[in-house]
Write a structure and sequence with these properties.
single chain, 7-stranded mixed sheet
Length: 160
Amino acid sequence: MIISGKSFVLSAVAAVTTVVATAIPASAVTQAQAESAFRAAGITWTSSGGCTNRNVSTCTSFDGLRQASVDGAVTLKRASGCGLTITGGTETGHASGTYSHWNGYKLDFSRTSCLTSWVHNTYAYQGLRGDGAPLYKAASGNLYADEGNHWDVTFYSCGC
């Protein structure tokens, strides 16, 4: 069978584009979109600087947060039944790396007795993280690091 060169190339490009598009991680959300989802789920947030600018370390920003991280926080709230307060998002000032706050994978939550009890009783203890923080892993693969005054959560998926 002979295939026209131009048609074949266009079909191949379309197929590759479709495969690549489906392999890209969930898209980032805006501050307003994240706030709306968190508000609807009963999740609160606070900012020591009273701002949302991701370029200011004292702000709590959701700009660039991955949809899976938003969904993961909502799932955590529903599954745990705990009140959740976000204290850190995508703002500058956190450690860098692929699965970082800046890249939309992490949220910080206030350390409450409810959340701490939920993590300890539900997730598998993994030992200490490189910085000494106790680390717990959910069945979903998400990681919970107890940083003393807050929980640093890495959302690889929308499960809690």
